[in-house]
Amino acid sequence: MPPRNKAAKNNIQDGALPQQQDCYEGERLIHVLKSIRRGIESARALAGNSLPEKVWLKQQFAIGVNDVTRVLERMAAIIDEGSTAQSPFVRLQAILLAADCNPKWLTKHLPTLAKSRKVPLIIVKDDKKGSLRLGELVKLKTAVAIGVKARGSAINQIMEEILDGDEPNQRALLQVQ
Question: 149 forms bridges with which residues in the sheet?
């Protein structure tokens, strides 16, 4: 059996999240969440009111640790940069993960799983209110993890800007409409 990296083992046992993910807090977090909220409202307005809001939200997002894990597991693992195998299942554009999850072991598998599928992970830190903030986005009391499904909507365009490091702006919403 090959020797293991003791620091990495302790990191996983402690439930600490790896440092490679993007972490949002403070004013930056407020700005990003408002942008996503505007994207949700814009995409909902474009879709019309044919579906109940909760059903429509489930089409746009994987909500909760179990749902995010299920979608990630159905996505094909990306072994090398050259493979472009298309999966018949839904792909996630990004995952929003609350840093205040307790116990930490509930979400310790998500960073590794997301990395293997090349899905960016955004950590939401807000003085133990990250799960409340994520819950507000999807009309729930709390949400520890939310996966943004790649559907080509205003939400996806705003997430793309966030992932590229650009500040989401109103022009993105107008271009989609």
Answer: 92
Contacts with 35 (C-beta within 8 Å, 6 or more apart), sequence order: 158, 161, 162, 168, 169
SS3 content of the chain, % helix, strand, coil (to 5): 50, 10, 40
Tokens 């986005």 sit at which residue?
137
pLDDT tens-place values along the chain, 177 residues long: 444 444 433 333 344 444 346 788 888 888 989 999 999 998 888 877 788 889 999 999 999 999 999 999 998 776 555 554 555 678 999 999 999 888 889 999 999 999 999 999 999 988 878 899 999 999 999 999 999 999 888 899 999 998 887 655 544 333 333
CATH topology for 19-77+89-176 is 60s Ribosomal Protein L30; Chain: A; (3.30.1330)
pTM of the predicted protein model: 0.76
CB 97 within 8 A of CB 123: yes
